[in-house]
Amino acid sequence: MLDITHIPGLAIRTSFSQEVLKEGELFFICGPEGEVYHEHNAGFGLYYRDTRYLSCLEMGLTEGNLLFLSSSIKDSHFAQFELTNPALDRGNHVIPASTIHIRTLRVLDNALFQRLRLINFNPMPVMITLQFTLGADFRDIFEVRGFIRKQKGEIFTPVSTREGVLFGYRGRDDLCRYTSVSFSPYPDSVEVNEEKNLATARFSLTLPPGRKVYLYMQVKPFIGNKPDPASTGGSGTVAAGFSGAVRKTSSLYEKWKEQCTQFKSDNVFLSNMLRRNVTDLCALCTRYPDLGTIVQAGIPWYAAPFGRDALITSWQALIVNPDIARDSLYFLARLQGKEDNPWRDEEPGKIPHELRRGELAACGEIPHTPYYGSVDATPWFIILLSETYRWTGNKQLVLDLAPNLFAAVEWCRKYGDRDGDGFIEYAVRSPAGLTNQGWKDSWDGVIDPRGSLPTAPIALVEVQAYYYLALKRAAEMGRVLGKNDWACELEQEALVLQRKFLEAFWMEDEEYLAFALDGDKKQVKTIVSNPGHCLFTGILPEELAVAVARRLLASDMYSGWGIRTMSKSMGPYNPMSYHNGSVWPHDNAIIAYGLRCYRQFDLLEKVVSGLFEAAMSFPYHRLPEVFCGFTRRRDGGPVHYPTACDPQAWAVGTMPLLIRTMLGISCWGNEVRVSAPQLPPWVQEIQICNLTTGCGTVDLEFTRKQGKAYCGVLRATGNTRVIIEN
Question: What is the pTM of this model?
Answer without folding.
Answer: 0.95
